[in-house]
Design brief:
This protein is an alpha/beta fold. Helix content is 45%, strand content 14%. It has a seven-stranded parallel beta sheet with strand order 3-2-1-4-5-6-7, sandwiched between helices. Helix 7 packs across helix 8.
Amino acid sequence: MKSALVVGGSNGIGLSIALRLEGYDTVYVLDKREPACPVPAHVRYLPFDLLEKDYALLDRLDESISTLVITAGYGRLALFDDVEECEIERMFMVNTVGVIRVLKHFYRKLLAPAADFHCAVMVSIAGIVSSPFFSVYGASKAALHRFIESVNVELEKAGAANRILEVSPGAIKGTNFSGGGTDLAQTEELASQIIARMMRKELLYVPQYEEIFRSVIARYRENPHGFGLESYEYKLKSGRL
């Protein structure tokens, strides 16, 4: 039996990936809520919350899982002054600690020198460049960015052929995060690109890199503070606050 696991797969890009994974007997979707639309019989929803202490469900699924995708995460545009302490804790628990805990449960499969295990994790461009109004969210994603970057080196040096694909997009249309709802028509192409790169065991995928983010990252690296000031003004004028 060959299975895939999508953590955070009930809506947005996670659901789109779950529906486009092919060749699996079962695609498990773990999320707090049921999928946002009807799913095929081989896609099986199981309730799961990254904030819970007990992750034993992952061990019960472990043996059949050959592909792991983690898209769970959340954030909101807000000045740090307006973010409550409980929100800081929840954001790091979901975006960083919870993701690392899931990866730890499957790490022996990533380390196996002869076993083929595919893995992708949704991070964010906010984890690569400074993002005022997203300070806590960006910090949680920056920690995840550095973790994946470092662990991929450890996997290589251990002789493992497997890698974790970091997916670091900007805003994704057709998702709850973008302020709308799940629209699979808008996420299916990105889902296909993520799956293709994961299967090739690439290290990093920044959607629209050549069109947008190559110059964005270059501007940030040249003058991080100046970039941050520009980002602040851009968000202030965007009407999204």
